[in-house]
Amino acid sequence: MTFGRPGAGSPVALDPRLVAELWISLASLLRSYTAVHGLHSNREAAVELTAEKITVRHGEKWLRLIRNHAILTWTRENGSMGTMELTEAGTLRSGTQDEAMDLVAEQWARDLMLKSSQLESHGSE
User: Fold this and answer.
1) Predicted pLDDT of residue 55
2) CA-based nearest residue to 86, from 66, 105, 108, 101
3) Which of 15, 21, 30, 84 has CB 3.0 to 4.6 Å from 92, enough for a Cys bridge?
4) Per-residue pLDDT reduced to its tens digit, 100-117
């Protein structure tokens, strides 16, 4: 169950069809952003989608997202992991903070596609 932001604040279950559409959209965003980040270096990532799992692989780097209704558990090749929630507004909620799904997908794609030295130089700009 999730809590709707507008209105009385009573528990509102997200429509499974909406959750499925948001899940497909997240996979599409990951495909697009990994493609963009690999353009100039002729690199590409493999994105695999099922009803409950998205896996993105590039070389030895990978990201796995497991979905249980609107709850997503993400895991990286280095063992880091976390949980986020898909919201009715199309954002990803982590704790009390909501982030736009496209911004989260772009960050994951950048981390997967860029080499460590490229990430460091982008972070210092």
Assistant:
1) 98
2) 101
3) 84
4) 999 999 999 999 998 754
Percent of the chain with pLDDT over 70: 82
| pLDDT (0 to 100) of residue 40 | 78
Closest CA to 75 of 94, 60, 50, 54: 54
- Structure tokens that stand for 43 in this block: 């690199």
Domain boundary assignment for the chain: 13-116
The token duo for 117 is: 């030295």
Containing 2, the helix (H) or strand (E) segment is: strand 2-3
**The pLDDT value given to residue 94:** 93
Burial (CB < 10 A; 0-12, 13-18, 19+), residue 9, is exposed
Question: What pTM did the predictor assign?
Answer: 0.81
Phi, psi (rounded to 5 degrees) for 57: -125, 135
**32 and 26 in contact (C-beta within 8 Å)?**
no
Query: Cα–Cα distance between 100 and 106 in angstroms, integer?
Result: 10
Cβ(93)–Cβ(103) below 8 Å: no
- Type of residue at 7: G
